């Protein structure tokens, strides 16, 4: 059922304080839920109205009308914050008392480039609604530079689908309102779950001094030949405990079981590793939905002897425990606007391999990016042969910059009644 909370305050505040910030979320689940909960817990004077994370298409079409009837009038509101699932244009037209608020629209994704199997399958209305919402917003926030740039640069071509009398200069009207503010990831304390070799590297990573000789800074090289994908050991290779040294490489794929995450590429790469008689283990995690791609059933049969974990783990601790045990995390996504799963895996000490596209170059240095399926195969082939390279590597991604502690001040400014 819907969740209507008149106001939620910080622990130091009295419950009688009047609500100042109106948080509206038509799709209260996943990262959308986590963000609303985080804002409610940390920003004083919030009033929250949500709908369950079901039937996304209907939420995008009809939530504005529902909220227009259920959000009570309140003279103390100063800011309205919502994800771009909401048709904000409809809401403020139906509720003129909300039109004068500072309206902040947050994009977890954008419908102008969200992948569909065929372009004719794309429902024009969803992207059109997002454009309209931007036009009535005061601030338009994107979780990544890629999300913002891809949205703004696609407006013109998207509007060309209108047969005639097309609107003009929409990008120029929207761009001055736009800012990038990364999604705040809530990383758990994983120190008690990390194996010894990961604990040492975590300690070194957070030390401001130069890493001592006991930790490796090795990384994969694209220039090497197919049979030698991993650079030679150097004197700074971290010694790995004997019990870990003998284990095969553990590869994890922690993504939604849908076509836009390109599981076909992931599984075809693993099957090539199997054909080469390379030793590895795999954990395939992530949520499943109604239409699971057929490749998963086939892959489970063909890779059965390599599988450690298969399927969604409803317990967050169990999920994090698998990430802590894994050596390498792989993304094969054809779309990604931010990528919480990859950052969570890196926080758990996994060596990342991502496409050199989408949001990934914003977050991951070039050494973790691959441009072709063959490059992905070569990277994994090298690590299968020498898994200690991944186990001794200090990942050069500062996950702390994506935490609430780092981003809190910017969100507080965003939800202030004045300012950007």
Task: Note down, in words, how this protein is organized.
Helix content is 38%, strand content 15%. By secondary structure, it is of the alpha/beta class. The protein has 2 domains: 194 residues, 3-Layer(aba) Sandwich (Rossmann fold), CATH 3.40.50; 206 residues, Glycogen Phosphorylase B (Rossmann fold). A 7-stranded mixed β-sheet has the order 1-3-2-4-5-6-7, sandwiched between helices. It has a 6-stranded parallel β-sheet with strand order 10-9-8-11-12-13, with helices on both faces. Strand 11, helix 13 and strand 12 form a beta-alpha-beta unit.
How far is it from the N-terminal to the C-terminal residue, by CA?
A: 34 Å
* Mean pLDDT score: 88
**Any idea of the CATH class of the largest domain?**
Alpha Beta
How many β strands by DSSP?
A: 13
Order of helices and strands: EEHEHEHHEHEHHEHHEHEHEHEHEHEHHH
For this structure, what is the CATH homologous superfamily of the largest domain? Glycogen Phosphorylase B
Key structural traits:
420 residues, alpha/beta, Rossmann fold, seven-stranded mixed sheet, six-stranded parallel sheet, 17 helices
In short:
This protein has 420 residues and is of the alpha/beta class. 38% of the residues lie in helices and 15% in strands.
List the helices and strands and how they pair.
Blueprint lengths: L2 E6 L12 E8 L1 H13 L3 E7 L3 H15 L8 E5 L4 H7 L1 H4 L2 E6 L16 H13 L2 E4 L2 H15 L10 H5 L3 E3 L15 H10 L36 H4 L3 E5 L9 H13 L4 E5 L10 H8 L4 E4 L5 H10 L2 E3 L9 H8 L3 E5 L4 H4 L5 E2 L2 H13 L1 H5 L12 H11 L6
Helix pairs in contact: 2-3, 3-5, 10-11, 10-15
């Amino acid at each position: 059922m819907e969740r209507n909370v008149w106001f939620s305050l910080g622990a130091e505040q009295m419950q009688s304080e009047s609500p100042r910030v109106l948080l509206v979320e038509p799709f209260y689940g996943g990262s959308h839920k986590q963000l609303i909960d985080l804002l409610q817990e940390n920003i004083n004077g919030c009033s929250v109205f949500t709908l369950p994370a079901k039937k996304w298409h209907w939420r995008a079409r009809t939530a504005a009308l529902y909220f227009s009837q259920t959000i009570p009038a309140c003279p103390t509101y100063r800011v309205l914050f919502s994800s771009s699932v909401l048709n904000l244009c409809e809401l403020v037209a139906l509720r003129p008392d909300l039109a004068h608020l500072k309206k902040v629209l947050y994009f977890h994704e954008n419908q102008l480039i969200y992948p569909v199997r065929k372009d004719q399958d794309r429902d024009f209305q969803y992207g059109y609604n997002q454009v309209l919402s931007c036009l009535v917003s005061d601030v338009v926030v994107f979780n990544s530079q890629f999300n913002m740039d891809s949205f703004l640069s696609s407006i013109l071509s998207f509007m060309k689908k209108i047969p005639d009398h097309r609107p003009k200069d929409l990008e120029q009207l929207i761009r001055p309102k736009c800012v990038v503010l990364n999604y705040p990831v809530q990383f758990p304390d994983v120190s008690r779950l990390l194996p010894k070799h990961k604990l040492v590297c975590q300690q070194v990573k957070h030390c401001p001094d130069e890493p001592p000789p006991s930790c490796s800074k090795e990384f994969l090289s694209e220039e090497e030949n197919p049979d030698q994908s991993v650079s030679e050991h150097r004197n700074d290779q971290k010694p790995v405990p004997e019990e870990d040294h003998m284990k095969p490489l553990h590869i994890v794929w922690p993504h939604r079981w849908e076509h836009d995450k390109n599981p076909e590429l992931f599984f075809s790469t693993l099957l090539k590793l199997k054909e080469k008689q390379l030793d590895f283990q795999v954990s395939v995690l992530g949520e499943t939905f109604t239409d699971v791609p057929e490749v998963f059933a086939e892959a489970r049969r063909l890779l059965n002897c390599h599988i450690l974990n298969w399927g969604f783990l409803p317990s967050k601790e169990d999920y994090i425990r698998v990430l802590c045990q894994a050596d390498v995390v792989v993304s094969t996504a054809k779309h990604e606007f931010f990528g919480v799963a990859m950052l969570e895996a890196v926080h758990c000490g996994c060596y990342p391999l991502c496409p050199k596209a989408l949001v990934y170059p914003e977050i991951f240095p070039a050494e973790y990016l691959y441009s072709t399926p063959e490059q992905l195969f070569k990277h994994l082939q090298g690590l299968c042969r020498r898994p200690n390279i991944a186990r001794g590597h200090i990942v050069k991604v500062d996950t702390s910059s994506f935490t609430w502690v780092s981003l809190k001040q910017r969100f507080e400014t965003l939800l202030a009644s004045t300012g950007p």
